[in-house]
Specification:
28 strands; 441 residues; 4-stranded antiparallel β-sheet; disordered C terminus; 7% helix; single chain; mainly beta; Methylamine Dehydrogenase, Chain H
Length: 441
């Protein structure tokens, strides 16, 4: 049977609201407060002057929005990297300095912590990408480098964009202590380029993205990317790495270096569709930890691209959902490892995206909903669903534009999970039905 999934918009849609990426929950530990950015525009190029209000919805007080700060360091994909600090009532997000500080790695940007209990604020010297689950340290990278290599997730400089070396020894991954603000460069781009190099790296610009600490905070994963043609994402090359939290024991899990006919002089980057890159057979994207030693990622291995689950110790990769999970998405596991929450990119014909839960035990997938996106939003202004679990795992939060504005929505998934836990019950779903019908034809 196919089960309905209750859904509701958060707030009154008086302005536009969104959270951003899929790799962190915007729910507090009691599932009462829901972090969000509030903006007065639906779409548009972000120049570094537009203000986003930062705050949270009180889900137990008629979704009342509480503003806790403002920032001009944000983008449509990741927002301001707004996130809870461990299990505290403190929130961190990226902000812009009132005056650039030339003695810091990233002169224009910093991060701000707000204590929701006391209302006090303090500033840390670097902008953050992601915090370790315990909230004791953050991983930090250069958002100005993204403005060249992957503008969708960058922050525009206050004045002039800085000149960038292709792979400097002075930039890479910084680890910053949340309590003291002390930071260290624990892995440089020069080190990455020198680690098991391939010829395609020689003339390329390099960067690091998709950083994520494992549940215990002892290791983290990241993607190393490089390219000679930054304007065409299908020319991006990828490697998946893990490393200890202090920068030791670097491990290469996957490399997708391959010939690039797109580098020919007569190739037209304008011929590449908005989501062609996300559907490339060489793409490594959206890695996230299942456990302290297991990583799920969309990417190629042994000549075919799937959802792959890697063992960080052995390096062995196995396919997850071989005939069901056939598209790139933003995936994350439930804590018990049984369920994968994910989505798809827009269908080229219908412009619909599917949100679903995949049952690892049965190999079946349940569609939670189909969401329309206007095809003219483009690459930088798009609104991916970016599904995020609540802490109880009874609810899922997404960003969506299917009602004509950018808003957040809550879906009650408890019935889906409970129904599939009934002994002997067969959870037949729309996704599995599509697959079976296709196979039969």
């Amino acid at each position: 049977m196919t089960m309905s999934t209750p859904i509701r918009r958060v707030g009154d849609a008086s302005e536009h609201h969104f959270f951003g990426y899929y790799n962190k929950s915007n729910f507090d530990r009691n599932d009462q407060r829901l972090l969000a950015q509030r903006v007065d525009l639906f779409t548009g190029d972000i120049t570094g002057k537009q203000i986003a209000k930062v705050g949270y919805f009180d889900l137990e007080d008629r979704d009342r929005f509480h503003e806790i700060g403002q920032t001009t360091t944000w983008n449509w994909q990741m927002g301001s990297q707004l996130q809870w600090i461990g299990k505290t009532n403190q929130v961190i997000f990226n902000t812009r300095r009132s005056k650039p500080a030339g003695d810091l790695p990233y002169p224009d940007f910093c991060s701000t912590i707000v204590d929701l209990d006391t209302g006090s604020t303090r500033t840390l010297p670097l902008p953050v990408y992601v915090l370790a689950p315990a909230g004791d340290y953050a991983l930090c990278v250069d958002y100005s480098r993204f403005m060249v290599t992957h503008k969708t997730i960058g922050y525009p400089a206050t004045h002039t964009e800085p000149a960038l070396d292709p792979a400097p020894a002075s930039d890479g991954i910084y680890r910053m202590d949340i309590e003291t603000g002390h930071y260290d460069l624990i892995l440089s781009l020069a080190q990455l380029r020198a680690h098991q190099p391939v010829p395609s790296m020689e003339k390329a610009i390099h960067w690091i993205t998709h950083l994520e600490a494992n549940p215990s905070g002892t290791r983290f994963l990241f993607i190393h990317r490089w390219t000679e043609r930054v304007e065409d994402e299908t020319c991006f090359l990828h490697r998946l790495f893990t490393i200890n939290g202090d920068g030791t024991d670097l491990r290469l899990l996957e490399c997708t270096d391959h010939p690039l006919p797109q580098l020919s002089e007569d190739f037209d980057p304008g011929a590449v569709g908005t989501f062609d890159y996300e559907k490339s057979e060489y793409q490594i994207s959206h890695p996230i930890w299942k456990s302290d030693r297991e990583i799920i990622v969309w990417g190629p291995h042994d000549g075919s691209i799937h959802y792959h689950l890697y063992d960080d110790v052995s390096g062995i990769a196995e396919v997850v959902g071989r005939d069901v999970l056939t598209e790139n998405g933003h995936m994350s596991y439930s804590r018990n490892g049984r369920w994968i929450l994910s989505d798809t990119y827009p269908d080229k014909t219908t412009n619909e995206r599917i949100l679903f839960l995949y049952d690892v035990e049965t190999g079946l997938s349940h569609d939670l909903g189909s969401f329309y996106t206007p095809p003219d939003l483009g690459k930088h202004n798009r609104c991916d669903l970016h599904p995020r679990w609540s802490h109880s795992e009874k609810s899922v939060c997404i960003d969506s534009v299917h009602e004509g504005s950018r808003q957040m929505y809550l879906l009650d998934v408890s019935a889906v999970l409970d129904d599939c836990d009934v002994p002997g019950d067969i959870c037949v779903t729309t996704t599995e039905a599509r697959h079976l019908n296709k196979a039969a034809s």
